Amino acid sequence: MESIQKSKKEIIKEKASYLFRKKGYAATSMQDIALAMDMKAASLYNHISSKQEILQELLMGIAGEFTSGMEDILSSTLDTQAKLEALVNLHVQLTLHNSDSIALITGEWVHLSEPELTQYKKQRSVYEQRFLSILSACQKEGLIAKKVNIDLALYSILSSLHWLYSWHHKHPNISKIELEHQLKMVLLNGLIS
Amino acid sequence: MESIQKSKKEIIKEKASYLFRKKGYAATSMQDIALAMDMKAASLYNHISSKQEILQELLMGIAGEFTSGMEDILSSTLDTQAKLEALVNLHVQLTLHNSDSIALITGEWVHLSEPELTQYKKQRSVYEQRFLSILSACQKEGLIAKKVNIDLALYSILSSLHWLYSWHHKHPNISKIELEHQLKMVLLNGLIS
DNA sequence: GTCTATAGGCTGATAGAC
DNA sequence: GTCTATCAGCCTATAGAC
Questions:
Q1: Which of the four pLDDT bands, split at 50, 70 and 90, describes residue B113?
Q2: Is the CATH number 3.40.50.720 carried by domain A51-189?
Q3: Are B191 and A191 inside 8 Å of each other by CB?
Q4: How many helices and strands (H and E) does chain A possess?
Q5: CA nearest to A27 within chain B
């Protein structure tokens, strides 16, 4: 039977992700993390091997969740439009469950050191290509007008979905189902009819 | 007659905005900036008074351009939908002319020190309220469906517009007029009809 | 597993020669 | 206006007592 207690390493990663989100990786010191843990900075090293390791585990964890979510959607028998909607749901799901660490994907990944930086960028690029392939299929089926630049549409959708955590931070009372519904209207159906 | 030459301070700000965008404010040292200028770090202080001053001037400059652009649009006699479209054009305009320093508005503003931090946040909040008031007017006129959450729509549009610089960085050959046209389709008219 | 002490390096910024 | 030299402080990380 696994313990339901969080390990101290997990708590450190939680506190660190909060600080990385608020001040950025470079501006967050081990002192800051130690203060949040009620410890001395040196004691942190009994649980983690470096500040960089914390960042790596946080980002690689999130990246893995996106990758596996994408694989489930691609291998499903959903029709093309339903796949697109399932992607929106995936981002909502991961945002509501990881709102501090998910914030790191907008900017803090640049502080990864090699070889994780290259690995992270490759994983993100594959994710974006797969997202684009779904948009492309929508366009072939006539769901998206031919004149629309789907490269730009992809970036626009991902920008909104990446920043969702910050909106949700200010509007925490909206339900998951309503958030998904509203995002599909705004991102997919458009504002002005 | 003013000189058409850029002052050394202006060149420092350009190089710094490039580095701040790429590595972040905290991870960029005066050494890094000096290297880009072919100078020793100490020599920078003949032109600027601190690293913080560079960040402040970059961010306050951009914020001022957004504020004055918004004021021109609000005081115009354009109809409501045209005002919304003019806002998209404003972001495109400022992005194409300031792509390094404009990148700082997505995250680096957190490194402003007081009192500029408070001033910046207030200015941004006023900008967002004015943007929202235009969306609200669109909704009252029936251009936007009543069921749409315009708080979420505002955040979604601004997310895309804020990250436009990074898309344009990878697709520099698109014309200004086509970029504006595509963004209005994607952000306002929607993908799926 | 936590602490104190500390190493070794980099930071932003200043002083003063030229 | 640029340089060398330098300061005082903070950084990540380690060593070793308890």
A1: very high
A2: no
A3: no
A4: 9, 0
A5: B26
